[in-house]
Write a structure and sequence with these properties.
With 258 residues, this protein is α/β, with parallel strands linked by helices. It is built from ten helices and eight strands. It has one domain: Aldolase class I (TIM Barrel, Alpha-Beta Barrel). The structure holds 2-phosphoglycolic acid.
Length: 258
């Protein structure tokens, strides 16, 4: 398993105003800086209005910054959208694309997610590409097929381009839709099986599949993090609700195996 460094990423979703967002970011920065050598990278993805103030609060510290979405185009007449170069300009290193709340709430297709991931890679961001089945799809025994199809359909072509290893800037987050914000988590056995399948599928997309970090997301909290993060092909977590509390988020990161 080797060189994949655990990534603990917080997705704040549409939560937070300047005071609490900045305070949370500052608290995490202080804790991570004081912790010295840790076996994980930590990132937070605030809502768009907070990206600049949170960037200022995190400045020159070890906590990394990410956006929650980006548009496929670099600029233009796209009211309400944010372009990947804008995120990079604000100091982001990451951007989440294809979250199920975008796929299902905004009708984003695999093709759209793929274009967004390509836009992120083009400006040097790391794209956290989310995939995950619905409860009905799992009940019908289609979970692995759905996730494999999303992964292949969302894989940015430029990732395989010669002259660089853009795929090293791709992170895949497996987030079963029925586990997001519900308090229900997939069983460790189900997560392990899905992550194994994702790694195998990545092998058909790139010869660098073993470099790509695979995160689990869906009701991750301090109480279940150690068990999930210990699984062989789980290289981190994408955390929603629990990332809104600095102590809870820190406790998840601390559950990274040493
Ligand atoms: P949750 O969200 O941790 O609140 O379930 C995870 C996510 O949607 O990324």
């Amino acid at each position: 398993m080797a060189s994949r460094r655990t990534l603990i990423a917080g997705n704040w979703k549409m939560n937070g105003h300047r005071a609490d967002g900045v305070a949370r970011a500052a608290a995490l920065k202080e804790r991570l800086a004081a912790a010295g050598a840790v076996p994980f990278d930590m990132a937070v993805c605030p809502p768009a209005t907070l990206i600049w103030p949170v960037a200022a609060a995190l400045a020159s510290g070890p906590v990394l910054l990410g956006g929650q979405d980006c548009h496929p185009a670099a600029s233009g007449a796209f009211t309400g959208d944010i372009a990947a170069p804008m995120l990079a300009d604000a100091g982001c290193r990451f951007v989440i694309v294809g979250h199920s709340e975008r796929r299902h709430g905004h009708g984003e297709t695999d093709a759209v997610v793929k274009a967004k991931a390509a836009a992120a890679l083009a400006v040097g961001l790391t794209a956290i590409v989310c995939v995950g089945e619905t409860e009905a799809e799992r009940d019908h025994g289609a979970a692995e097929a759905v996730v494999a199809a999303q992964l292949t359909g969302s894989w940015p072509e430029s990732a395989g381009a010669a002259g660089g290893h853009a795929e090293d800037r791709l992170v895949i987050a497996y987030e079963p839709v029925w586990a997001i914000g519900t308090g229900r988590t997939a069983t460790p056995a189900d997560v392990a099986a899905m992550h194994r399948m994702i790694r195998t599928t990545l092998g058909s997309l790139t010869d660098r599949a073993d470099q790509i970090r695979l995160l689990y997301g869906g009701s991750v909290k301090a109480a279940n993090a150690a068990e999930l993060l210990a699984l062989e092909d789980v290289d981190g977590a994408l955390v929603g609700g629990a990332s809104l509390d600095a102590d809870a988020f820190w406790a998840i990161a601390e559950a990274t195996p040493r």
